[in-house]
Specification:
By secondary structure, this protein is α+β, with helices and mostly antiparallel strands. The chain has a single domain, classed as Endonuclease/exonuclease/phosphatase (Deoxyribonuclease I, Chain A), CATH 3.60.10.10. The chain contains 10 helices and 14 strands. Strands 1-7-8-9-10-12-11 form a 7-stranded mixed beta sheet, with helices on one face. Strands 2-5-6-4-3-14-13 form a 7-stranded mixed beta sheet. Strand 8 and strand 9 form a beta hairpin. Helix 3 runs parallel beside helix 4. The longest helix has 22 residues. It is globular.
């Protein structure tokens, strides 16, 4: 009997050790300073210095998988990811961005064949400065659960800021995970985050925030929005840009629940966007009135049949929006989200 009990305890202890190793150990939320990568041999052009205009793109690229990236699809070959990233690169080149905010980017992952997607797209767009913020790190993610061949596997993923301008400061702040998830699920669940970067430009310093909030737990999403707002109130510069996937809809949206692709999702009592909109000095170029005038033009999810806007770009009063649009035709099906492209102009340019 004692031998059986010892064997049982040994099995349980071994399983716990395996789980801890697979999850990458205990990870706590917090702020981390992260080194910025600079691609060698890439010289940014002087377009913006001459024109005093900034083109910004925000895009949740769904790790270049496309629809089903949340785990509902099967594993795909390396050729799929390289082709998708190449098409994304061509689309981004056509928009000629100076700053790109990316969410759901794989840096070194089994599921996407260890392609550094941030560097791939930086090379495609010739934006030499890369700030990578890791929000999901694990030695092995056993999801989707079956078959094991579809497991996400080794995970190093998060958000990235690509820039034509030098990035002088970069931090990522991760937010605590939903507390009502089972402990085992929480250990393998990704953190949500916001990245902060300071860019050195001819127009003066630009503060950039790249944001990805919680998708499936409203209380956690509200917590993130409040945390972000509390930081921005004190950190906003005259030239500031905030964008990303907020996983919420406008209060003016005609559809706030019962979505065809996610009937269980309900945004009817979600104040996330109101919290962000209430930050002093931060502007939402797509006002409620502008949005309801042509809702379909601003919807970003799901990319193949958009029915809601989950992605946003905000800026401070030191910038004005020359143009903003959702380029549906050139981005369709590359991700499960559509990007937003904005051309911004500073109201006053530093000499």
């Amino acid at each position: 009997m004692q031998t059986i009990l010892l064997a049982y305890l040994l099995i349980v202890a071994s399983l716990l050790v395996l789980i801890v190793w697979m999850a990458g150990g205990h990870q706590a939320p917090g702020i981390r300073h992260v080194k910025v990568t600079c691609l060698p041999g890439f010289v940014p052009n002087s377009k913006v210095a001459r024109e005093h205009q900034i083109t910004v793109v925000t895009w949740n690229i769904a790790w270049a998988y496309g629809w089903g990236s949340s785990g509902t699809g099967n594993a795909r070959p390396e050729s799929h990811f390289r082709q998708t990233l190449a098409e994304m690169g061509r689309a981004l080149q056509a928009w000629n961005p100076d700053i790109i905010l990316l969410q759901e980017v794989d840096f070194h992952c089994t599921r996407s064949h260890y392609i550094d997607q941030a560097e791939f797209l930086a090379r495609s767009t010739r934006l030499p400065f890369i700030a990578k913020g890791t929000s999901w790190r694990a030695n092995w993610v056993p999801f989707p659960y079956w078959p094991p061949a579809n497991h996400f596997g080794e995970m190093l993923s998060g958000g990235a800021i690509l820039s034509r301008y030098p990035i002088t400061e970069h931090t990522i702040e991760t937010v605590d995970k939903p507390t009502d998830h089972p402990w085992l699920y929480r250990w393998f669940y990704p953190f949500r985050y916001h990245q902060k970067a300071i860019l050195k430009t001819p127009m003066g310093p630009i503060l950039v925030y790249n944001v990805h909030t919680e998708a499936f737990h409203q209380e956690n999403r509200i917590l993130h929005a409040k945390q972000l707002a509390n930081r921005l109130i004190f950190e906003l510069l005259p030239l500031s840009i905030v964008g990303g996937d907020l996983n919420t809809v406008l209060p003016e949206a005609s559809m706030r629940s019962n979505y065809p692709d996610e009937p269980e999702t309900d945004h009817q009592s979600d104040p996330t966007l109101e919290i962000i909109r209430s930050i002093p000095g931060l502007l939402d170029p797509i006002s409620g009135e502008k949005y309801i005038h042509n809702e379909q033009a601003w919807m970003t999810f799901p990319s193949h049949a958009p029915n809601r806007k989950l992605d946003y770009l905000f800026h401070t009063t030191g910038l004005t929006t020359e143009q903003m649009y959702v380029p549906r035709a050139t981005a369709l099906d590359l991700s499960d989200h559509l990007p937003i492209v904005a051309q911004l102009k500073p109201l006053k340019v530093n000499s």
